Amino acid sequence: MNNALEINNLSIHYQTDSGEVRALRNVNLKVPDGKVVGIVGESGCGKSTLMSAIINLLSENAIVKNGKILFENTDILTMSKHRLRKLRGYDIATVFQDPMTTFNPVMTIGQQLTDFQHRFKERNRQQKRQKIIEMFELVGIPDPAQRLNQFPHEFSGGMRQRMAIAAALLMNPRLLVADEPTTALDVTMEAQILHLLRKMKNDFNGSILIITHHLGVVAELCDYITVMYAGEVVEQGTVEDIFYRPSHPYTKALLECDPAVLKRKTRYLPTIKGRIPDLRTPPPGCVFANRCSKVSAQCTQTAPPVVDLSDGNHWCICHEVSK
Amino acid sequence: MLNYAFKRVMLGILILLFTMMVMYVAVYLIPGDPAAVALGPRATPEMKADLLARMGLDQPIYIQFSSFIVNILHGDLGLDVWSNREVSAIISETMPNTMILAFASIGWALALGIPLGCFSVIYRNSFVDRIIGILSVSFIAIPSFVVAIFVLLIFAVQLRWLPAIGAGEEGDILSQARALILPAFAIGLGWVGYLARMVRASMLEVMGEQHIRTARAFGLSETRVVFRYALAISLIPVISLIAVGMGGIISGSVFAEIIFARPGIGNLTYNAVTSRNYPVVMGAVMVTTVFYVSITVMADLLMAYTDPRVRDVLK
Questions:
Q1: What is the ipTM metric for this complex?
Q2: Are B18 and B122 within one domain?
Q3: Residues B45 and B96 in one domain
């Protein structure tokens, strides 16, 4: 099977006044054609850095230490400016996290979404607007034709989020990268958007890389799951592997924290105790050691090995599992 | 929006009234007897009293001020003490010259300063950015009257390319335009630098916003992102800066008009103050204040118009 996107050994650091923050370390990830891959992990684990790297829009203080991001066998990180512009928004479309700030406040929605279709030379202005109207109907924006002439602040957060998704779907991309696409939506709308994303996958044979906190979204939509912790991939596998046969202690802890799986009434929602280590000086051993319930002396000293659990499809990095 | 515009205009009128009052008191407090200055040391007390009575200066100050305001409302700015001409006539002859100079100065500064600021952002932290930065700061640092004297010496006196004095032949647009070049250059130069720096700073802030990342993530070119997506937002604070700066431009035009012997409100005010020609001083100050206040009101309205978020709040 071909991969729409392949990330090999990617390490990205941020240069800050108080030292180098090692935000991503040796990340490996594959997004097969026509599949949906979910990245889960708590805040600060490097999900958004990974997303910015995929479209080569890292902030100016980011340094790519090593690794490649391959799209159609070309490394995105070393692509020419010209090729990058075709990649962004045409090959790879993105939905960003915060719908409130995702659109330009002084331009109408119609102007912006028409602009975003600049790669589609065969569509004239009228056709571009027609496409937006169709897409808005699909994502559930009422009165799309009138609303094209409105400014972003005239829409609710949920509507803006849907418009952001509509903008990405307008591109009919090979790969859709979505950062928390349903966080700002209510449950009904979320279900509609998930349905829409699945439809996009089926109808256009596009791949989706979805970044989320929401395990329900992952279970609904994804074929593969990558669990990230403190800038590293700690476990990877199919959706069944992760939900039914989680191996890494972090994955297990994360699943236990999902309010949806709680069986008994509690006063406090379960959490994973402790904090992410300081990424300026990541520990020499396992990054999860300080919060792990099964920690041993070995965990704090040597880096954990990669443990293959099923022919390279499901693997994790852990001393405990390797035993 | 209309309601807002009305409020802004009313505020402008209040500012105007207050300025006139301050100006009136200031002129009143200037030491020296206007009659003595006007008539010379050998004037008799009767001649002085006669002149003061003709100018209405023997009345108490509040009466003088209220009759002054009433006269203004009738379009009467009083008479020139020396020539006995209507002040309003003198001002309507000179004011257009100053307005042309002010708009020409800020106009070319905008036309050059804004693109320079944008290019600084497109090529930020590069060689181009540094060169623009050094030039801008130098332009800001040189006082406009120094620039005026140097361009006068170089282009008018040495090279004889452009006229040194005057505002050009009446009715001859080409000659008027040629006479405008040097003073407008001198006044506007500092503004080129100022605007370039302001636009750069303001735009760099905008460039850090999320919606710019969205525009880039959809493959729009950097030039398009800067000029179409960031510029309009970056210019909102610059509009108010320009409006405030119009005051500086008008005072800059005093120097430029004196150096280039250009008829204009700055030149007129200067001569009127030195010869204690109070009606002319008051008239000139009032007209420049009206000019300045209307520019600020227009800037406020323009800012509200540029930003749809503000526009809606003001509905």
A1: 0.85
A2: no
A3: no
